[in-house]
Amino acid sequence: MKILVIEDEKALAGSITSQLDKEGYLCEAAFDYPSGLEKIMLYNYDCVVVDINLPGGDGFSLIENLKKTSSSTGIIIISARNSLDDKVRGLNTGSDDYLVKPFHFSELNARIKSLLRRRNFNGSNEIIFHEIKVDLNPRNVFVNNNEVNLYRKEFDLLMYFLSNKNNVLTKAAIAEHLWGDNIDSADSLDIVYSHIKNLRKKLLDKGSKDYIQSVYGIGYKFGEK
């Protein structure tokens, strides 16, 4: 899952992204309104954590722009402002949650997990697709109750497929979801094929049907043939 943190306090932003990275998320950060706006216009995120007081603009405006381009992205406001008016404005603008500073990382992490479960998997910690089962919290994958040992990117790839069942995903979209804007410096997208090949083999070795379909000239689709 891919998360953007927009926070002008660089120490706080660094602490949040570092902790979220340990939780298995792909995290990026922006420290002001212009760079935050640029990122949400260029890239897709599962969740955006945004402060409403930013150099060069405010978080409410960023949320409005984000809702115009990606209604499926989850939004959590973090702010030192604790007024009811700000909370109501944030929710009315399109945010899903509002967390007042200072907060413990464990609370932010729990709210992110809850938000992603609600948006992608109907609030469940367990995802079942035929013989494939995923336990989200320990990040375990099973096929016919046999555990499949996946590397982090392979797990993230499977989750991206399960979040977009029967949708055609381009190689560029997959690469951007797994590596963020770091993929812009890559010479090719062959790395996507390698990860898909490895994921497919590990699932098949445990007895799964082959749900990963190549769509010629475009990318891949996950679902029944």
- For the report, how would you describe the main beta sheet? 5 strands, parallel
Low-confidence stretches: none
Question: What's the number of domains?
Answer: 2
The topology string of helices and strands comes to EHEHEEEHEHEHEEEEHEHHEE
- Treating each run of at least 4 consecutive H or I residues as one helix, how many helices? 8
- Can you tell me the CATH topology of the largest domain? Rossmann fold
What is the overall shape? globular
**Total strands:** 14
Helicity range of the residues?
40-55%
Going across the major beta sheet, what is the strand order?
2-1-3-6-7
Alpha-carbon distance between the two ends: 26 Å
Assign the CATH superfamily of the largest domain.
Response regulator
